[in-house]
Design a protein that fits this description.
The chain contains 3 helices and 5 strands. By secondary structure, it is α+β, with helices and mostly antiparallel strands. The protein has a 5-stranded antiparallel beta sheet with strand order 2-1-3-4-5. The radius of gyration is 12 Å and the shape is globular. The structure holds zinc ion (3 copies). Residues 6, 8-9, 66, 80, 82-83, 85 line the site of one zinc ion (ZN).
């Protein structure tokens, strides 16, 4: 952890929760995933970088949505791709 300020994480006051526990892109493509992440800008739930599709990081790169939250039950953290920062909540 670093103390460097992240405007993206600081702007989040309510965590967007996953509406479905599946990666929307993997479902379309018939793929599988390891863990799920929810985009905090648009609420899309996609798979993590340990998954073959890596759809959450692709979404962050192509859409410019920097912050995801873990969509795994029991995990309470946010991650900012732009600043490479994790924050517990
Ligand atoms: Zn940030
Ligand atoms: Zn996926
Ligand atoms: Zn998004």
């Amino acid at each position: 952890m670093t103390s460097k300020a992240c405007v993206h994480l600081a702007a989040i006051h309510q965590i967007a929760q996953p509406t479905r526990r599946e990666c929307e892109e993997c479902v379309k493509l018939g793929g599988t995933w390891v863990n799920l992440r929810t985009c905090q800008t648009c609420g899309l739930t996609l798979c993590c970088d340990s998954s073959p599709g890596r759809h959450a990081s692709t979404h962050a790169r192509t859409s410019g949505h920097p912050v995801i939250a873990s969509a795994e039950s029991g995990e309470r953290w946010l991650y900012c791709y732009a600043d490479n920062l994790t924050a517990m909540y």
